Amino acid sequence: MNQNFPKIFDVIIVGGGLAGLSSAIHLSKYNLNVLVIEKNNYPKHKVCGEYISNEVLPYLEYLGIEVFDLGAQKINKFELSTYRNKILKSDLTLGGFGISRYTLDNALFEKVKSQHVETVQDSVVDIQFLDDEFSVVTKSNNTYKSKVVIGAYGKRSAIDITLERNFIKNKSPFLAVKTHVKGNFPNDLVALHNFKGGYCGVSKVENDTINLCYITDFDSFKAYKDIDDFQEKVIFKNTFLKIIFKNSTPVFERPLTISQISFSNKNPVENHIIMCGDTAGMIHPLCGNGMSMAIRSAQIASQLIIDYLQGNIKSRQALEKAYQKSWNNEFKTRLKVGHFVAKLFSKNQLADVIITVLKWFPMLLPIIIKKTHGKPIIVK
After folding, report:
1. First-last CA distance in the chain
2. Is the pTM of this model over 0.90?
């Protein structure tokens, strides 16, 4: 162990994605001893829709991150199409921006280092809680101790098995594919185009690059020999996607993929660990706001942990109860609406009917979008 490490940290953060790094910066502003344990190095591309609602802009600015200085694209228009090529267009009232995880995560990591937060590149294999203290064990056989642990290690991890979390016991049918391309696409538009068995998000990120990220179920995918075959025979049935894919040049040598994506219910607090981001719960990408939820959950967790460590929250039980309540108030409705909308659009014939109804009653779409997004974060 690093000789300069404290005997016990105030907070250990397991995972250095959006939620973990945002929490680390926030907590460091209060002179807390914070350790971030992340298995990957930076910068790194991740499978992600890479669209973020403007609700998090005030908080990112508080953390010292100016996304538009990093090249983020302002987005205020939305398109939605069915696999039969019916399309709906709308303005995004709150708006958002497009930025890659490669750039944003790295900017957050650089800020973490400048705040003198300790970082370790390693994998966590166990988290134990005994006598009001955490012991976090890594693959390198190091043990780090802390008063509080934040779990921010993403959608699915081996540590979920160790912690015996309920959702990990069930196989998930979903997989996702993401690539960056160069081509023609409006800077101010985020599009969600459905195809049989899934949907694809399209938006611009920095460097005039288009992010293409689609999710499908394994049963739909396994009937085809590879990604190219699946795209040609399934995805390209959506004319809008065919035009985008066929008239663009890949930036990546090969697409990134992940499997076993779970949208099952998770608990925001498990084994006394405060869970953030996708570790606490995932919204369907069809409603496209997972990055904002990760950042917002980091703010909620950080502020409550600060209150706890400063003695304003009197017990660990009260901390956990407060976080559970705040998390549910902020995200439970979003997740329910997201699951419901995704289920409706998975029924292809019904999707066409929904598009028609939304065209007849255009005031409904902003209401649905509002239900899957939050209000601009107020920084205290």
Report:
1. 36
2. yes
